[in-house]
Specification:
Helices cover 66% and strands 0% of the residues. The chain has helices at residues 2-18, 23-30, 34-41, 49-58, 71-81, 91-111, 116-130, 138-154, 157-180. It is built from 9 helices and no strands. It folds into 2 domains: 2-81, 434 Repressor (Amino-terminal Domain), CATH 1.10.260.40; 91-182. By secondary structure, the chain is an all-alpha fold.
């Protein structure tokens, strides 16, 4: 039983480090005393379920009882996602950057209303708002905003073009990441070829 609690404590500490949170910051977000978090991470005190739930919620972890026979598959999936960029999933910052990018693209599109690539990019940003923010690379989003800011100042068309391609790639990556994480029966096609009554 000691191994299980040590493993959980290590996972919580690693998740806190990955999000760049101090024990004090985690304490404020989760409502668990900082001293208690320290004791949990050092294995001095056993976790209460209520504390574990709150800490996991703040650290973007999910608690789940997994059938023992499914554990190898769950472990493999978890290992495969641990190499993802650290700056994924910061919801408030991602929302802020998405809004900023949408506003910036709107300014440029107002100046160049016939630019199809700009109009498509605005749609891609709207699409990104509908995906899980944990699937969006925050650093790439910030880079896109810097590049659009630069275009507004210098009108560097080549730099803007590269950025618009990156926005499209971000949207596609987020769509694939979200679809891959959904149960197979929950994934729906973008359109359907069902009869719509026109051939009756």
């Amino acid at each position: 039983m000691r191994y299980a609690t040590d493993y959980i404590a290590t996972r919580l500490r690693n998740a806190r480090d990955a999000k760049g949170l101090s024990q004090r910051a985690l304490s404020e977000l989760a409502g668990v005393p900082q001293g208690h978090i320290s004791k949990i991470e050092n294995g001095v005190v056993d976790l209460r379920v209520s504390s574990l739930v709150e800490l996991a919620r703040v650290l973007d972890l999910e608690l789940m009882l997994v059938p023992r026979k499914s554990l190898p598959a769950v472990s493999a999936i978890t290992r495969s996602t641990e190499g993802m960029p650290r700056r994924l999933g910061d919801t408030a910052a991602t929302r802020k950057e998405l809004n900023r990018l949408q506003n910036n693209l709107g300014k440029v599109l107002h100046k160049y209303p016939a630019n199809i690539e700009l109009a498509q990019s605005q749609r891609f940003v709207r699409d990104l708002k509908n995906f899980r923010f944990s699937a969006i690379d925050l650093d790439k989003l910030r880079d896109a905003n810097r590049a659009v800011d630069m275009f507004i100042e210098t009108e560097d068309a080549e730099g803007l073009h590269r950025t618009l391609i990156e926005v499209k790639n971000m949207r596609n990556a987020a769509a694939h990441s979200t679809a891959a994480s959904m149960p197979e029966d929950a994934v729906r096609p973008a359109y359907s070829l069902e009869e719509d009554g026109h051939g009756d």
